[in-house]
Amino acid sequence: MDRCITSKGFTLIEVLISLVILSISLLALAGLMVTTTRNTSFGGHLTEAATFAQDQLEQFRAMRWQDIPLAPGPDLKTGSTGINYTRSWNVVQSGNLKTITVTINWTDQTNHILTLLSVVSE
Asked: How far is CA 77 from the centre of its chain?
């Protein structure tokens, strides 16, 4: 006599294997969330640094050409996230052109530097 065995559910082994696969997937996703959070934080800091540098360049552009100082200057800024930024600039005159370099330094987990360059004519 032939017995026909019909399956009406999952075996315990199948359930355990699927739980292991699900656990590995969730662990990989958790690692991805940490990386995404870190990258988002860095993007915010980079945007804030670029804003501070652009602000200094706009201040120089608003000045008369003769009033733009040739002496380098440092400046400390604190961002909205509590990160301290060091803003420095250097102005080099060549004929009727002044080359302005604004550099922003900050440290979150590592040291970062952002440099913007602009040329202003008389």
From this structure: 17
